[in-house]
Specification:
The chain is α/β, with parallel strands linked by helices. It contains five helices and eight strands; from the N terminus they run βββαββαββαααβ. The strands form three sheets. It has a four-stranded mixed β-sheet. A two-stranded parallel ribbon has the order 1-8. A two-stranded antiparallel ribbon has the order 6-7. The structure holds zinc ion (ZN).
């Protein structure tokens, strides 16, 4: 469930993160979504590192100073995005579409080492899959062949593109409406 927060919903500066875009106006990263807290966003504005693209209807004030908090900023200098996403819990789930690779369940997700750690299996993209707790318990420290449990999709190291593809089905929980122009922007361009 995605909540689109209306522009007037902001009540505290802490509820006003800024979406950070690269100089090409794409998010600096999708997973996790590149967000800065309001202090970092304002600091970057004053250091002349970013342009303000959009603002909240919310100002911070001190004597003689008032500024609307940025809701979207773009870097002035292009940062080359990394081709390979970080090996994180969220990204493994995203690669596996939040689905147990043994039974297809989408509840109680955890991880499973395909080759168990006790048998030398490593915690790497190529050996870790999303699995539900019951399957994880059932497989325990057995090899796939011993329990006849093989992952639906052989685990692999995904590219940012792979995750982006899957991410369209699982948008973040919090999306300010001013961000929408910059997220999943190429969806309609795909055949
Ligand atoms: Zn399962």
């Amino acid at each position: 469930m995605t909540v689109h927060v209306p522009a007037n919903a902001a009540t505290t500066p802490e509820s006003c993160p800024a979406l950070v875009l690269n100089a090409d106006f794409r998010p600096l990263s999708y997973y996790p979504l590149s967000l800065w807290g309001w202090q970092d966003a304002i600091k970057a504005v004053f250091l002349d590192r970013v342009n303000i693209v959009s603002e909240y209807d919310f100002s911070v004030r001190s004597p003689g100073f008032s500024m609307r908090l940025p809701s979207v900023v773009s870097l002035k200098t292009y940062v080359k995005p990394s081709r390979h996403p970080a090996f994180t819990r969220f990204n493994v789930f995203l690669r596996d579409r939040f689905t147990c690779q043994y039974c297809g369940a989408q509840e109680e997700l955890t991880f499973d080492h395909v080759v168990p750690r006790s048998k030398g299996g490593q915690t790497v993209w190529e050996n870790v899959v999303a699995a539900c707790s019951p399957c994880n318990l059932r497989k325990a420290d057995k090899m796939p062949r011993q329990v006849d449990m093989f992952p639906a999709q052989a685990p692999y190291s995904p590219t940012v593109q792979d995750l982006h593809q899957n991410g369209r089905h699982f948008p973040p929980n919090y999306l300010h409406e001013s961000w929408m122009d910059y997220l999943y922007w190429d969806t309609e361009l795909d055949p």
